[in-house]
Design a protein that fits this description.
There is one protein chain. By secondary structure, the chain is α/β, with parallel strands linked by helices. The protein has a domain at 105-387: Metal-dependent hydrolases (TIM Barrel, Alpha-Beta Barrel), CATH 3.20.20. Helices cover 27% and strands 24% of the residues. The strands form two sheets. Strands 1, 2, 3, 4, 5, 13, 14 and 15 form an eight-stranded mixed beta sheet that branches. Helix 9 (251-258) runs parallel beside helix 10 (287-295). It binds zinc ion (ZN).
Length: 439
C-alpha cells in the first residue's frame, strides 16, 4: 500500500542527528557528503509542527474520530488531526502505523500523596506512589488522587507532589480534614467539616475536582452527607468508597437518596464483607443499582488490591452495568497485584468483552467529563497534546481478579508512547528516537 512507501521515507530520515534551527548548521555540514540526505531535509521555517504522530488508528471518542489519521502537535497543543499531513512540516515524526493513537488516559482513582514522614500519615506514606513512577509508562497523562489529602494538608500535597510531577495531578479532597491517614483518624466525625472542605476545594480549584468519602466504618451517613454538602458548595463531585460498616449501610439508600446525578460510586465490582454487592447472590444486578445508573450516578471501576472480582464484573457486564470510568485505584498494594497498571485494567476489560473504542472513551473523555474537565481526554484541535500511543498485541495472556481467579485472554494492550502537553514522557519502542547507525 501507498503508506508503506511513505513509511520507508520517514524511517530513513532520522538516521542523522535531530537538530532544529541554528543548532543544525554544524550537523548538516557534517552530512555534506550525503547530498541526498540534505536534499530531503525541509527548511526549518517550514516545520510548523513540533511533533507529528502519523499513520496510526486514531480513536478519539470526544470528537467522533476512529480512523487512520495523523496528529500534529504545536507548542504543547493538538494543532491538527487529518489525513496525510505532510511530514516535512514537522520537526519530529513518529511513525504510528499499526498502532492506536488515543488521548492520554485520565485515571480518576489513584493514591499519590505521601503526607509527612513524622509517623502521622502512615497509610499514605506507605501506600502512595509518585505519579511519574507509574502513569507515563501506562499511557496515563492525568491522575486524580482519590482523597489521600483533606483540607488540612492539600497545600502540602500540592507542594510535595502536584507541583513536581510531569503527570497532571488532580484531587478529590477527603471529607476528613487530615486526609487518608488510616486508623482512628478516618473515624473521627469531628474532623469532617463540610465548610472547611468546601473552602479548601475552592481555594485549590485548579486541582480539586470533588470530595471523597472512604474507610468510615460507623453506622452513620454523616460523612456522605457532609461530603455532598461540601461538593455542592464548591461545585465538585462526590466519590464514595462504601466500605465495611457495622451495622451495614444501605447501598440502595446511598445510590438512590444520597448521591446526586454525577456523583461517583467507586469499586463497583468489589465484593467486600460488610458492603452490599451490585450483583446479588443469584447473579442478578440489583434493580436499584440499574435505576441509579439511569439516574446518572457514576460507577467507577476502582480496581485496587481488593475491589475487582469476576463474580461481580462478569454478570454485571452481561447485564449492562458497565464502568463509567476505567480506573486503577493505584497504590503500592495494587501495583504489584492483580491490578498492575492502567493498560492492564483496560486489557482485562477488553478480554471481558468490552470494545476498544468504548474502553478508550471510558478511559479518556468519559472520566474527564465526570470530573468536570472536558478539556482533557480529547484530541480536539486546541486541546492539550496529551496523547497515548498504544499497541494491541495478540497472544496468550492471563488476567487475574483480586481473589486470585484467572481468565485467559488473547489480546493485550501495551503503552508504546505517552505525550503530555506535547512532551514525550514515555517511549518504550523509541518511536521518537533516531535510528542507530553503526559507526
Ligand atoms: Zn482508593
Amino acid at each position: 500500500m501507498a503508506g508503506s512507501d511513505v513509511k520507508g521515507v520517514r524511517r530513513a530520515r532520522p538516521s542523522y542527528p535531530r537538530c532544529f534551527g541554528a543548532r543544525c548548521a554544524p550537523a548538516l555540514a557534517s552530512l555534506a557528503v550525503s547530498g541526498a540526505a540534505i536534499a530531503a531535509e525541509p527548511p526549518a521555517q517550514a516545520r510548523e509542527y513540533d511533533l507529528l504522530i502519523s499513520g496510526g488508528r486514531v480513536i478519539d471518542p470526544a470528537n467522533g474520530r476512529d480512523g487512520i489519521l495523523d496528529v500534529a502537535v504545536r507548542r504543547g497543543r493538538i494543532a491538527r488531526v487529518a489525513v496525510d499531513i505532510d511530514p516535512a512540516r514537522a520537526r519530529a515524526v513518529v511513525d504510528a502505523s499499526g498502532l492506536i493513537v488515543a488521548p492520554g488516559f485520565v485515571d480518576i482513582h489513584t493514591h499519590v500523596f505521601f503526607g509527612t514522614t513524622d509517623g502521622t500519615y502512615l497509610h499514605n506514606t506507605y501506600e502512595a506512589l509518585a505519579p511519574d513512577s507509574f502513569a507515563p509508562r501506562s499511557c496515563t497523562t492525568t491522575v486524580v488522587d482519590a482523597g489521600s489529602s483533606g483540607w488540612r494538608d492539600v497545600a502540602l500535597f500540592k507542594a510535595q507532589t502536584i507541583a513536581h510531577s510531569k503527570t497532571r495531578v488532580l484531587a478529590f479532597l477527603n471529607i476528613v480534614g487530615g486526609g487518608m491517614r488510616g486508623g482512628r483518624a478516618e473515624q473521627d466525625l469531628g474532623d469532617m467539616d463540610a465548610a472547611r472542605t468546601a473552602a479548601a476545594a475552592r481555594a485549590h480549584g485548579d486541582e480539586v475536582v470533588g470530595v471523597k468519602v472512604a474507610h468510615y466504618a460507623g453506622p452513620a451517613w454523616d460523612p456522605v452527607l457532609r461530603a455532598v454538602e461540601a461538593a455542592r458548595a464548591s461545585g465538585g463531585r462526590v466519590m464514595v468508597d462504601l466500605g465495611h460498616h457495622v451495622p451495614e449501610l444501605s447501598l440502595r439508600e446511598l445510590l438512590l437518596t444520597h448521591l446526586r446525578p454525577g456523583d461517583i460510586f467507586t469499586h463497583v465490582y468489589a465484593d467486600i464483607p460488610g458492603r452490599t454487592t451490585v450483583v446479588d447472590e443469584s447473579g442478578r444486578v440489583r434493580p436499584y443499582v440499574l435505576e441509579a445508573a439511569r439516574r446518572g450516578v457514576v460507577f467507577d471501576l476502582g480496581h485496587g488490591a481488593g475491589s475487582f472480582v469476576f463474580d461481580q464484573a462478569v454478570p454485571a457486564l452481561a447485564q449492562g452495568l458497565l464502568p463509567d470510568a476505567i480506573s486503577t485505584d493505584m497504590r503500592l498494594k495494587s501495583l504489584n497485584g492483580a491490578m498492575g497498571d492502567m493498560v492492564n485494567v483496560v486489557s482485562k476489560m477488553l478480554n471481558l468483552g468490552m470494545s476498544l473504542p468504548d474502553l478508550v472513551r471510558r478511559s479518556t473523555a468519559a472520566p474527564a467529563a465526570i470530573i468536570g474537565r472536558p478539556e482533557l481526554g480529547t484530541l480536539g484541535e486546541g486541546a492539550a497534546a496529551d496523547v497515548a500511543v498504544l499497541r494491541l498485541d495478540t497472544g496468550r495472556y492471563g488476567y487475574v481478579d483480586t481473589r486470585g481467579a484467572r481468565i485467559d485472554g488473547d489480546r493485550r494492550i501495551e503503552c508504546a508512547m505517552t505525550v503530555r502537553d506535547g512532551r514525550v514522557l514515555w517511549d518504550r519502542d523509541g518511536l521518537n528516537a533516531r535510528r542507530y547507525v553503526p559507526r
